[in-house]
Amino acid sequence: MSDALINGLAGAGGGIIAQLITYPLQTVNTRQQTERDPKKDTRSQGALERMCQVVKEEGWERLYGGLMPSVVGTAASQGVYYYFYQIFRNKAEAAALQQKKMGVGDGSVGMLSSLVVAALSGCVNVLLTNPIWVVVTRMQTHRKESNRTPADQGLFVATEQPILSAVEPLPYGTSHVVSKVYIGDLE
């Protein structure tokens, strides 16, 4: 097995473990960053207080909304980054050794070369995994709205009968959000 593949798999595994441990905090953080409701209390809530609020109003499962695509995204992102980092690093080391043979430099990869290697790896990572993160953000910010009465959320006609009586908006499941990302119909 190549060093690049070993580093890619190690990065993916480490990323998955970290994601499983920190996911509820990430969900709350994403919600705090994307919340724009002027009717809500503007008092800043801490992460723990916000987690308790989500559990109370929407249930434990909402803290983990989007976990599966997030785990896939983290594994892909970390795996891609570390895989390409090792490939680019190997090329930089070969170039440094070639320069040493020509009498230029000491054969080691310098700071600037290391920075370029990391930047290139990061660019490849973002280009390949960005759609996954759009799905994750959509799933993290989707809210369960079960505390409303049907009269609060339906469209009414002259008879005051709700046309739409769903208690909760259409779910943002993984396949639903993926189709929205690639069709381009994101709200």
UniProtKB/TrEMBL annotation:
Mapped Solcar repeat ranges: 2-91
Membrane-topology annotation of the record: Multi-pass membrane protein
Transmembrane segments: 111-136
GO biological process: nucleotide transport; transmembrane transport
GO cellular component terms given for this protein: membrane
Pfam families: Mito_carr (PF00153)
Keyword Repeat: yes
Predominant location category: membrane
SUPFAM superfamilies hit by this protein: Mitochondrial carrier (SSF103506)
Keywords assigned: Membrane, Repeat, Transmembrane, Transmembrane helix, Transport
Family as reported in the entry's similarity comment: Belongs to the mitochondrial carrier (TC 2.A.29) family.
Name by which UniProt lists this protein: Peroxisomal nicotinamide adenine dinucleotide carrier isoform C
Organism, as annotated: Glycine soja
